[in-house]
Amino acid sequence: MSNAVIQLLVLAGIAVFLILKLRSVLGSREGFEKPPAPMPSPSEKAARRGFEVIEGGPDLDITDHAEEGSPQAKALAGMKQVEPQFKVGEFLQGARGAYEMILMAFEKGELETVKPFLANDVYESFAAVVAEREAQGLTVEAQFLGVREVSLADATFNRDTREAEISVRFQGDMTSVVRDSAGQIIEGSAKEVKKMRDVWTFERVMGSNDPNWQLVATGE
Hints:
The chain is built from six helices and four strands, in the order ααααααββββ. The chain is α+β, with helices and mostly antiparallel strands.
């Protein structure tokens, strides 16, 4: 037998010995091999990079409109606890529409169309002004040009009665002309844009079957 063949046999024997030794130490792949580690989640990756992961976090629907931890933010959070589907952003959009609807109903003397959205004292106050205009033979021609700003001014919540009040700051533009019984303009101009700045307060009992908010106060 040549030296080359002998060397090959020796190397083959050593290889078989090493394979058997490794199997005895590591075990076979069947039943013993650990499954591949799952990919880390985004939060785990952030934690490994040294970022703090906060469960939950602030409610952006609230903190977009009120400072976190402020009395207004706490009041809004209380409203949401009673009525989880309540959204501050959606409320403000609804308030924008209500502002135009109520304002134009007042200018045109058509308060009956918005009476469900007015508290009794607010309705009576508006109605008294409309009645006085009619008694003097005055008419109003108004055109609403749009709202430039809607923002949260204040918010309060009574946890015992579940009464919520939200004050909204409006800035809008309109034209208004007041005519006498002869049709002559006595106030305003159809070309002059009137800047409107108002703070209206709306009230509702959270969790009630009535979804409507009522206007309970007006101011600047």
